[in-house]
Amino acid sequence: MRGRDTRLCRKDESAPYACAGSRSIPPQSAARTDLELWGGVECTVNRVGDRFYDQSVLNGHHQRPSDLELFVELGIKALRYPVLWERVAPRGLRQADWSWSDERLLRLRDLGIRPIVGLVHHGSGPRGTDLLDPQFPEKLAVYARAVARRYPWVEDYTPVNEPLTTARFSALYGHWYPHRQDGNSFSMALLNQCRAASIAMAAIRQVNPRARLVQTDDLGKTYSTPRLKYQADFENERRWLTWDLLCGRVDDEHPLWEHLVRTEGVPPSALEWFLEFPCPPDLIGVNHYLTSERFLDEDVTRYPPQTHGGNPREAYADTEVVRVDHDEPTGLRVILREAWQRYELPLAVTEAHLGCTREEQVRWLYHVWRTCRELRAEGTDLRAVTAWSLLGAFDWDSLLTRHVGHYEPGVFDLRGGTPRPTALARLMRELASGEEPSNPVLAQPGWWERPERVLYPRNGRPAATARVGSPTQLPGRPLLITGATGTLGRAFSRLCDIRALPHRLTTRQELDIARPEAVAALLDELQPWAVINTAGYVRVDDAETDAERCLRENARGPAVLASMCAERGIRLVTFSSDLVFDGSKGAPYVESDAVAPLNVYGRSKAEAEREVLAAHPDALVIRASAFFGPWDEYNFVTIALRELEAGHPFAAASDSVVSPTYVPDLVNGTLDLLVDGECGVWHLANPGAVSWAELAERAAALAGISTRKLVRMPTAAFGQPAPRPGYSVLGSERGVLLPSLDDALVRYLRECERDARALAGAGCATRGAEVEAPGNE
């Protein structure tokens, strides 16, 4: 144990092994009449085999106490925060290291943020115990008492986060330690965790009688066809078990008593313990995710294989209810009303997160906030909404069963090495201060509210075929996108449709961006909230003899846009190139590197950067390079694969190294930065430095195409009029936002195959390379 701060006073008392009862939170006083905004740090320490996965290490918070200053700026009143058993005392209390918790909890107190301390978060305890250890509850209670003695001023605790969910993942599905897959193990793991929560609170309350239990769990509801109502009814009873047990409600008249005792083999005494020693929560914390609400259907032919499952009686598909054309009311409002009617205890949404595009994350948090405020107005005692994953989360796409670094940004984005506030941070500050949210994307509904959410229409009903509708059908101010005839402009329009961002795409005939009067007229007519300029002169070699036109289109036009947008308070995005560099660095270029273009095209882009940022400092300038994508026929990768597959020779430079950029990734990354309100120069390219010949070779290998006809040549052999840098790889000091090149190439080939099937009349309507993105959690 390390030295303690003198402010960490303690009492020396023993802990009883029965909960002393709820310290019920009184109705909110006149001073606290509105919903509070809370925050949470994804802090799971789960075990897979003999390996522990620690989110606080993965997200860097373990080494960044300065994060707490960022959190307080959000306006949060409370923070769900870890003092986890596995982290503090992995080898027992005698060797406990409290230094990390000491520093951070004291800082939270100084900052005026109320900590809600978690002791086990999807964990199974240190080595030497687990969820099925009969002594797990008593061992946790000993640790809980030590925490309370060290921090007697802390009043809110979640001794065990999500007991039901953790029991399912660990002892029913076998994902986490102790990797069991049977009903008895699941039931005993659940009871062990609930008993641990109860006696841990008893131990804490002997030190601090004011301590309150904030008991969290997922409360996803199950819906079904009439035939599977029996299964849905069972799952909908089971979802209450965490709180039913703690409230002393599971007696021999409980709907699941017979199942637990006779089917799962739970000793009646294990259930009766909770009747003798109830420990009702002071506040019920509902962790809500769109994927937690399920739909069961016996007609498995309508659903993909990964949804197929069943019970001993019959097979059925199990999918997200939001993806099904279903008439019964669903969603957070239904769930919270049910919880209030069942327990009449104060409620909070203790996790609100959506792994998705930025505007959908913003829409989701605001949707949860609005829903909770409306329920409060109806009389439901709802205390708070918690923005979860303030720092994002790692590898939840695999339920933390493998460590590959898959990252979902949250309120802050860590991909730049330090936390960068996203649009969610601005929304939180506005909600906390009572301001009206200002982000224009909130004018459109979230994907879960739009017709295209339905992937599985009901029998006899047509599928929802409309993507979103035309731009004029969507509410709110539009985006103005220039460059309708170019690859990038069309890609922005396509993905704005999918992301429900209303927009107007213009041709050069509709808008000559170098004419101030034309730009001013259209801006005043449309009143866009942002302009995305993809127009410009793109013929690098022709620019050597057509410099005046190149400079007009690439430099003067963006400068005019910048001036006109700045006057009207309109955001601007424009695009630059890796060709602003001369290649002499020999290492990836970052945003602050000095530009030194070798050719006219590069000079036009460098001049545009200077003029745009001088006229409009809040503009966003994106540098990218070597575009490839599935939606045009003339990019390098598409041409290379077409020629090689046909058996034709294809020549590519072997000594010119670039960082290729997958167009859908570029567009999605740019839109996220725009929604976040970012400005200045950003580099967006898929990480992976390759020569043009290596790019063709790598794409062909992934496509299964022979490279026997690939001709590797020096750049000089092509006789191009415009000199080019031999090395123009783009790195970033602000954040590597795009996936790897190999990942992008795999998705490129998959999308090309999907488009080919659609064109062949396979009945598969292509919606875009990232069609699943709006619903990806």
Shape: elongated
Main sheet record: 8 strands, parallel, barrel
CATH topology of the largest domain: TIM Barrel
Q: What strand order characterises the main sheet?
A: 1-4-5-6-7-9-13-14
Fourth CATH level, the homologous superfamily of the largest domain: Glycosidases
Level of helix content? Answer: 25-40%
- Provide the CATH top-level class of the largest domain: Alpha Beta
Content of β-strand: 15-25%
Report the mean per-residue pLDDT as an integer: 91
**Rg result:** 29 Å
- Compute the number of strand runs: 30
For the termini, the CA-CA separation is 40 Å
CATH architectural grouping of the largest domain? Alpha-Beta Barrel
Regions with pLDDT < 50 over 5+ consecutive residues? 1-18, 27-32, 464-472, 762-777
How many domains comprise the coordinates? 2
| Discrete helix count | 22
Q: What structural class do the secondary elements suggest?
A: alpha/beta
Protein model, in words:
It is a single chain. The protein is an alpha/beta fold and 777 residues long. It folds into two domains: 32-451, TIM Barrel (Alpha-Beta Barrel), CATH 3.20.20; 467-746, 3-Layer(aba) Sandwich (Rossmann fold). The two termini are 40 Å apart. The model is unreliable at 1-18, 27-32, 464-472 and 762-777 (pLDDT under 50).
State the gist of this model.
The protein has 22 helices and 30 strands.
